[in-house]
Amino acid sequence: MLNQYAVLPFSGPKFNENQDKLKVGENPCAICGKAVAYPYKHVTVVRGGAWAKTEAEAANEADAGYMG
After folding, report:
1. How far, in Å, CA of 32 to CA of 7, rounded?
2. Which residues of 3-13 are buried (b: 16+ CB within 10 A; e: fewer)?
3. Hey, which of 1, 7, 44, 58 would disulfide with 52, CB 3.0 to 4.6 Å?
4. Closest Cα partner for 40 from 50, 27, 31, 49?
5. Whether the Cβ atoms of residue 48 and residue 9 lie closer than 8 Å to each other
């Protein structure tokens, strides 16, 4: 089962501040804005994280709401 969180993506209290500190080529966490190590293994955000109910739905890269 997928974890679902009540925190909306890109809404962490220091998201913008943390994202501004990223180096070229780093990608931000969708919640806090800090750099996420590749390969990404913990979170997939899709349509704000609310629609995916299964891992198969979350991994569907063909879905227009897929955000990686």
Report:
1. 10
2. eeeeeebbebe
3. 58
4. 27
5. yes
Q: Say if pTM beats, i.e. exceeds, 0.70.
A: no
Tokens standing for 24? Answer: 């070229």
Residue 68 Cα distances to 7, 19, 21, 30, 48, angstroms: 18, 17, 21, 10, 11
* DSSP structure string for the chain: -----SSPTT-STTHHHHHHTPPTT--B-TTT--B-PSSP-S---BGGGTS--SHHHHT-TTSTTB--
**pLDDT tens for each residue of 25-64:** 888 888 888 998 877 776 555 555 555 667 777 777 777 6
Q: CA-CA distance, 63 to 57, in Å (whole number)?
A: 8
Asked if omega into 9 is within 30° of 0 (cis), the reply is no
